[in-house]
Design a protein that fits this description.
Blueprint (H helix, E strand, L loop, with lengths): L2 E5 L3 H12 L3 E5 L11 E4 L2 E4 L5 E2 L1 H10 L10 E3 L5 E3 L5 E3 L4 H12 L3 H24 L5 H10 L1 H7 L5 H8 L3 H9 L17 H9 L1 E4 L4 H13 L3 E3 L4 E6 L5 E6 L4 E3 L2 E4 L3 H6 L18 H7 L7 E9 L9 E4 L4 H8 L10 E4 L12 E9 L36 H15 L8 E7 L1 H8 L16 H4 L10 E3 L10 H15 L3
Parallel strand pairs: 1-2, 1-14, 2-10, 7-16, 14-20
Antiparallel strand pairs: 3-4, 5-9, 6-9, 7-8, 11-12, 12-13, 15-18, 15-19, 16-17, 17-18
Bound molecules: flavin-adenine dinucleotide (FAD).
The site of flavin-adenine dinucleotide has 38 residues, from helix 1, strand 15, helix 15 and helix 17.
Amino acid sequence: MAAVVVVGAGVGGLAAAARLAAAGHRVTVCEATDSAGGKLGWYERDGYGFDTGPSLLTMPEVFEDLFAATGGPLAAAVTLRRLDPIARYRFADGTTLDAHSDEAAFLAELDARLGAGTGEQWRRLDGRARRAWAASEQPFLHNPVSLPALAGLAVRRPGALAAVAPGATLRGLGRRHLTDPRLRMMLDRYATYTGSDPRRAPAVLVTVPHAERRFGGWYVQGGLRLLGRAIAGRAAERGAVIRTGTPVAQITRTPGGRVDGVRLADGVLLPADIVVSGVDAARLYEGAPAERPGRRGARPLVDHPASRRRLRRLAPSLSGFVLLLALRGRTPGLAHHTVLFPADYDAEFDAVFGGRLPRDPTVYVAAPDDPVTAPPGDEAWFVLVNASPHAHPRSGDSTSDSDDGHGHGHGGSGSGLDWDRPGLVDAYARRILDLLAERGLDVRERLRWYRAVSPADLARATGAPGGAIYGVSSNGPRSAFLRPRNRSPVPGLFLVGGSAHPGGGLPLVTLSAKIVAEMIGPA
Ligand SMILES: Cc1cc2nc3c(=O)[nH]c(=O)nc-3n(C[C@H](O)[C@H](O)[C@H](O)COP(=O)(O)OP(=O)(O)OC[C@H]3O[C@@H](n4cnc5c(N)ncnc54)[C@H](O)[C@@H]3O)c2cc1C
């Protein structure tokens, strides 16, 4: 039996804790904030309740596997509701399109709304996505990433490698297969599921819409936050101790370099044979910038210059600007998820990856039909737009020991925006409300109150540097290989969560926990 400390009670950390405790290890989870769940958060006020992070659950079998492996079925812990349509899209020309969960109905909808033949184009693209999924699921989603895995694939199944199309971009794939610009836009949007730019993200992300449609888009009755609570409950049932309000300041090491515990912010040392980091890899290897000018930033949790340098070659994931709207009355016929596209999608990507505010961003609305979200007869909307990560004003921004004297230096490209600039958040919130009205959803008269969550707020609430939603982006053909590994180069230190392999989003962070639990093995 090993003594394991898990740093951070996000879904990745909690899932790792549940698996490792079930495997017989002595597990302690240290979470900086007062609640478990990380980005899978919840906000309630005046009878309204909002999931503040994820609003769409995909690949439910990943969670079924986690629950089955740790003591009982998922269905006994949460109630999942399959969504149909998964989303309703509205394009700038006013066309709407329902992404029905049934494949035949979806293809018919494409033909009816976007023109005859578009359904067949999508079907062909999906055939290719199916092959890419078959080729990449086991070697890349269920196992640690490695160049030998890719080389093995090339030798054993050259056709599969062609389907994965290393070197091609998602945008390029869309151009080859789809003629309608609106359908290309729909495909491009899946790059944002990994916080990326479709013009730079790899074509293999075509597996994202494939998986979404094949395994369904789901809602957790009572709010997605209940999934986080259920995983935390499962970890505790298996004997893991979850300590909230317990920030970790440093991962400690023996003179030989192996981890031997963590030092908490209050100075207390917790010995450990193994440390699993569930925090953003930028926080782990680079530290965090000062929250306010004149303050000092946080030091890295572990000092490993090579990992820090490697991380800097990756672009951070985009962040999000969130509006929680408490609305009077209900919107007739509103879908669970609505995506309102702009006329110029590229202008949006240029802005968010260039550290600027897009004038005309895509707006995403999640409006669950669930009594816990609003008083009877009323409605709670979660509104999300893509946003540049928060960039701190340089003055006073110091993590003192990082290579260039500045934490959160990873980025390779693009820059952030100072979301704490006075007046910015409220002005942008008003702009989003106006945009919703321009695109057919005017709720300004029905608004009781709103709460805005900027990338800076997200960074403060979840410890994700800059408020990056998915850790690091998949921009660039080599991003999957540069992404921090689950087994770190520091002996005894493992990584789970959105910035580590295989990536961000609830199913992938849960898979990262499975990979790490298998690496560590039973007690
Ligand atoms: C607005 C938004 C919308 C999203 N939408 C979706 C969606 O629809 N579907 C989907 O699948 N995914 C979505 N995601 C992504 C998903 O939420 C994340 O990929 C996932 O929850 C990240 O889990 P994680 O394990 O990386 O940990 P995180 O949730 O990042 O949690 C890390 C935890 O570590 C803690 N921590 C940090 N530093 C320390 C320290 N020094 N000591 C102790 N604890 C520390 C933090 O407080 C936090 O609780 C969304 C995210 C956001 C923000």
